[in-house]
Amino acid sequence: GEQVQFAAFKQFCDDTTVEKKRAIDEANEKIDMLKADIEKYTATAKQLTKEIAEHDEDISVWTGDQKAATKVREIEKADYDALHKDYSESVDALQHAIAVLKEQTHDRKQAASLVQVSALKDLSLIPDSAKRAIDVFLQEPEGLEVSAPEADGYEFQSHGIVGMLEKLLDEFIAERTKLEKEEMNGKHAYDMLMQDLTAQIAQATQDREEKSESKAKNLQAKADAEGDLKDTTDTRDADQQYLNDLTATCEQKASDFESRQQLRAEELEAINKAIEIISSGAVAGNADKHLPSLAQQGTVLAMLRADTVNTLAQGRVAQYLMSKGRELNSRVLTALAERVTADPFVKVKKMIKDLIVKLMEQANGEADHKAYCDTELGTNKLTRENKQSEVEELSASVDKHVAESAQLTEELALLADGLAELRKEQSEATAIRQEEKATNALTVTDAKAAQVAVERATKVLRDFYEKAAGAALLQEPYTGMQSESGGIVGFLEVILSDFARLETETSTAEDQAASAYEKFMDETNEDIAVKTTESDHKTAKKRDVDADTESLKKELELTQDELDAANAYYDKLKPDCVDNGLSYTDRVRMREEEIQSMKEALNILDQQDLV
Fold first, then answer.
1. pTM of this prediction?
2. Residues 271-319: pLDDT tens digits?
3. Alpha-carbon torsion 576, 582, 585, 589, what sign?
4. Using an 8 Å Cβ cutoff, are 152 and 106 in contact?
5. CA proximity to 73, closest of 197, 199, 231
6. Rg of the chain (C-alpha set)
7. How far apart are CA 176 and CA 173, in angstroms?
8. Contact 110, 151 (CB under 8 A)
9. How far is residue 57's CA from residue 208's CA, in Å, rounded to a whole number?
10. How far is CA 16 from CA 3, 11, 243, 253, 517, in A?
C-alpha cells in the first residue's frame, strides 16, 4: 500500500542523502588540502624566485670581480715583463762588462773593453752616479802624457769600476729576484682569487639551476592543484545543489504523506461514527426485528463464502512465498509461508505488513551503517595509501642521504690523503732545498774567498815583475817564469776566471733552484688551497646531509607510527565494515526481492478483500 511505497521512497532519500553528504564532506576535505597545497607551492615558488635573484646577483658580482681582477693582473703582468726585461738586460750587460774587464790581461789595450763599459750608460736602470763614474773611467786614459807609453790595461784604473759594477750587478740580481717573487706572489694571489670566484660561481650556478627546476616543479604542481581544486569545487557544488533539491523534494513528499495519513485517520474516524450509528437500536434493532431470518441467512452465507475464498487465497500466498523463499534462499520468506497457512487471514496481512516495515527499518539502519563504514573505510584507505607512499618516499630519501653521506666520507678521506701527501712532498722539498741552499751558499763563499786569494797572489806577482822590470830598465826586461802564453800570472788569471765562473754558475743555479722551489711551493699551496676549499665544502655538505638524514629519520618514524595507527584502525573496522559473506549490494538486492515478494503476497490478499 502507500505506506510501503513511502517507506521505499524514504529509504531512497536517506541513502542518497547520506551518500551525498559523505561525498560533500570528502570534497570539502580535499578542497582544504588543495588550498593548503596551493599556498605552500606559491610560497615556495616565491621564496625560490627570491633566492634565484640573489644567486643571479652574486654570479654577476663575482663575474665582475673576475673581469676586474683579470684586467688588473694583465696590467701588473705587463709592468712586470717590461721591468724584468730591463733588469735582465742590465744584468747581462753588467756580467759581460765585468767579465771583459776581468779577463783583460795587463798588457792588452783598453779599446777592446771600452765598448762594453760604455754601453752600460744606455741602460735605464743604471743610476746617474754610476754613469758619471763610468764617464770618469772612460776619460782617464785621455789625461795621460802624450810622450808616455800607451797605458797598460786595467792594472791601475779598472779595480774600482769593477767593484762598482759588481755591486750594481748584485743589486740588480737581488731586485730582479725580489721582482720575480712579487710576481709569483701576485700570480698566486690572482690564481687563488680566480679559483675561489670560479668555485663560488659554479656552486651558485648549480644552486640556481636546482632551484629553477624546483620552482618549475612547484609552479606545475600549483597549476595541477588549481585544476583539481576547480574540478572538485564544481563537483561539490553540483552535489550540494542536488542534495538541496533532494532534501526539499523528500520533505515535501513526507509532508504530503503525513497530510494524507491525517486525512485517512479522519476518514476512518468518520466511518467508525457511521458504523456506530448503524449499529444503534434505530437501525440494527429494527433490522433484527423485521428482517431476522434474511439477515441471518445472508450473514451465514457471506461467512461461508469468505472463509472458503480466504483459505484459497492464503494457500496461493503460501505457495508463492514458499517458491520465492526457495528461489532466493530466504529463510524469512520460507518461515512466512509456513505461518500464512496456519494464521487467520487478517493476522496474515498484518504480519506481512509488519515484516515489510521491519525489513525497511533494517535496510535504513544498514544503509546508515554502510554510509558510516564507507566514510571511515574511504578515509582510512586514503590515509593508509598516503602514509604508505610517504613512508616509501621517506625511506628512499633516507637511503639516498645515507649513501650520499658515505660517498662524501669516502671523498673527504681521499682529500685528506691527498693533502697529507702534498704536505709530505712540501716537507721533503723544503729539506732538499735547505740542504741545496746551504751547499750553494758554501760554494759561493768559497769561490769568493778563492777569488780574493787569487787576486792577492796575482797582485804580489805583478808587483814583483814590475819592480824587477824597473831595476833592469837599461837591460833586457826580466820575465822570469812568464812566457808568451801568460806564464804564472796568466795561469792565475785562468784560475780566477774559473772561480768567478763557479760563483756565477752557482749563484745562477741557486736562483733557478730557488725559483723552481718557490714555483713548486706556490703550485702545491694552490693545490692544497683548492683541496682544502673542496674539503671544507664537502664537510659542510656532509654536515647538512647528516642533519637532513636525522630529520628524515624522525619524520619517517612519526609517519610509520601514523601508518601503523591507520592499519590498526582498519583492522578494527574490518569485522563490522568489510564483507566476509554476501556483499552489501547482494544483501540490498535480496532484501528488495524479499520485500517485493511480500508486496506481491499482500497484493494477492488485497485482491481477495475486493472479492
1. 0.44
2. 566 556 655 555 445 555 554 544 444 443 344 344 444 556 666 667 7
3. negative
4. yes
5. 197
6. 61
7. 5
8. yes
9. 11
10. 20, 8, 8, 15, 92
